[in-house]
Design brief:
By secondary structure, the chain is an alpha/beta fold. It is built from eight helices and seven strands; from the N terminus they run ααββαβαβαβαβαβα. The two termini are 23 Å apart.
Length: 273
């Protein structure tokens, strides 16, 4: 199965380069609404090809634009989120050079940031505010790096500066916390690409492991009035951590219930094993 997934992945990227990239470029230039459908449907195909099933709970707050803040586990977070909504992302500059995926990211208006370049923060925050003022829904990963997903790293308050810049009544975007975790259906798993990992071996392990479930929990909007960016960073991180804990509790309760049922009536519930 992994070999078939790898072949399908290569064919999907090749097809995107030949057909989707020109169409998306034209749609963006002309402002056609189809650009959003192209993004979400392509990402759904990529998720299916690499073996990721997206389990979404809740929904984005109704008031747009939304400033979405999420923990960061892997590059697949972007694909999974974009399979649900036509988001604009803040991403590290290296993404821009990825084959095909980087080109598509640029076409979607992704804002790129140089990792560790503090002098670039003001420009990036201005670009983020421009996206929000234009009505786009923006996703940032304020941990600043991906990890194994076991815990939520501290959120960098600099990423919340656009909320301060747009604090005027009627202009402030909606702050929406989102929690992301991965499991094999029974327990949390590490799908992160971080440290000194190389991409192709990481991708191969992901394809061999499938199916993988990506759990995305959309939390309630956070009130931003009268709060500085440091306060917002701490509050948002606490909300995301709570959502991740609820996913773990729900999974543990489900497994416990399943095993208890098996113990009581094993012949009728063998599918739980």
């Amino acid at each position: 199965m992994a070999y078939l997934r790898a072949l399908a992945f290569v064919l999907t990227l090749a097809g995107a380069l030949l057909f989707l990239v020109p169409l998306q470029a034209l749609a963006r230039r002309r402002g056609w609404p189809i650009q959003h459908a192209i993004q979400t449907r392509f990402c759904r195909v990529v998720c299916a090809v690499i073996g990721i099933k997206v389990d979404a709970r809740g929904a984005l707050p109704l008031k747009a634009p939304r400033f979405v803040v999420a923990n960061h586990v892997s590059w697949t977070d972007i694909i999974a989120l974009a399979s649900l909504y036509p988001f604009v992302f803040l991403a590290k500059s290296e993404v821009a050079s990825w084959p095909v995926l980087g080109l598509l990211a640029r076409l979607q208006g992704t804002v790129f940031i140089e990792r560790g370049a503090k002098q670039d923060i003001a420009r990036v925050n201005d670009s983020l505010a421009d996206v929000l003022r234009a009505g786009g829904d923006l996703v940032v990963f304020p941990e600043g790096t991906s990890n194994d997903g076991a815990a939520v790293l501290p959120f960098r308050s600099a990423h919340f500066a656009p909320l301060e810049a747009m604090a005027a009544p009627g202009e402030a975007p909606t702050l929406a916390p989102v929690a992301i975790s991965y499991s094999d259906g029974e327990r949390r798993i590490d799908v992160g690409w971080y440290g000194d990992m190389t991409f192709l071996p990481h991708l191969w392990r992901l394809m061999k492991r499938s199916p993988t479930q990506c759990h995305i929990v959309f939390g309630d909007a956070i009130e931003t009035t009268g709060k500085d960016r440091k306060t917002l960073a701490m509050e948002t991180r606490a909300r995301v951590s709570e959502s991740l804990a609820s996913v773990e509790r729900s999974r543990e309760a489900s497994q416990s219930s399943c095993f208890e049922t098996v113990a009581a009536q094993p012949p009728q519930h063998e599918d739980c094993l």
